[in-house]
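Try this one yourself first.
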């Protein structure tokens, strides 16, 4: 029984998968990340300035947030977008005070909309640690 448990733990850690950056919709009906600027603050936390493009149509359909995840898909930080940006495309919004574990040197930033969720182009960001 103990050997089975050890093998089960080993198999689950080996099968951990990386987030798929290659599969996404190019349609601007899905929120697309266009650019990310990540800067580390003096206290070690991070600020992310993220540019998003989306076919915002008003309150019924708009980009309503973006998130930072590690390569396995674990959420590290978020930015909620509170209103449509119909006449401001692409648009950039920042979020600071995001704590990234010291052993992580790359993150993924992906955006979402209130109708389709995630599914547009995400961006791999290499963190230049100060």
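Now uncover the answer:
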């Amino acid at each position: 029984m103990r050997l089975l448990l050890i093998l089960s733990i080993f198999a689950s850690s080996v099968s951990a998968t990386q987030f798929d950056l290659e599969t996404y919709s190019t349609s601007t009906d899905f929120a697309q990340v266009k650019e990310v600027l990540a800067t580390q603050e003096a206290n070690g936390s991070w600020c992310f300035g993220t540019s998003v493009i989306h076919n915002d149509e008003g309150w019924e359909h708009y980009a309503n947030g973006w998130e930072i995840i590690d390569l396995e898909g674990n959420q590290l930080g978020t930015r909620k977008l509170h209103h449509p940006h119909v006449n401001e495309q692409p648009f950039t919004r920042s979020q600071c005070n995001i704590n990234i574990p010291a052993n992580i040197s790359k993150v993924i930033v992906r955006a979402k909309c209130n109708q389709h969720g995630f599914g547009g182009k995400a961006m791999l960001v290499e963190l230049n640690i100060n």
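Discussion: The longest helix spans residues 2-14. The radius of gyration is 17 Å.
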